[in-house]
Amino acid sequence: MNEIIKTDKIDHIGMVVPDIEKALEHYKNVFNKIGSKPIISETQNVKISFVEFSNVKLELIEPISEKSPISNFLKKNPLGGMHHIGLEVDEFEETFTKATNNNLEPLSKPVKGYHGKNLFFLHPKKMMNTLFEILSKN
Q: Exposure winner among 59, 73, 106, 138, fewest CB in 10 A?
């Protein structure tokens, strides 16, 4: 079978948190992991930090305004929680085209993320009720 999304790398797991500083302290205490210094993504209206494990990163995301696309998630889940799984692909444009043509319903056209990588999200109802972020390698 010719897969629609060709990948073998989970880049990160996105976790929405109400307070990124408290979340970083929690993960430090629980896992003895020090997260990256939080950065602000003005385009997404979020604060982001990464906690790295040997095989995957946790992307901690705190909305900084009501304009943030994740502020509604936090309203529904005041303690935060898992938001999405980020997958890295080699053939980004081809993956977007295949996802569109196979009714996986990308939520938007690809955009450039705060890290410089292109990305798009697949509709959760088409992905077993899980939000997937598809990322370019570069």
A: 138
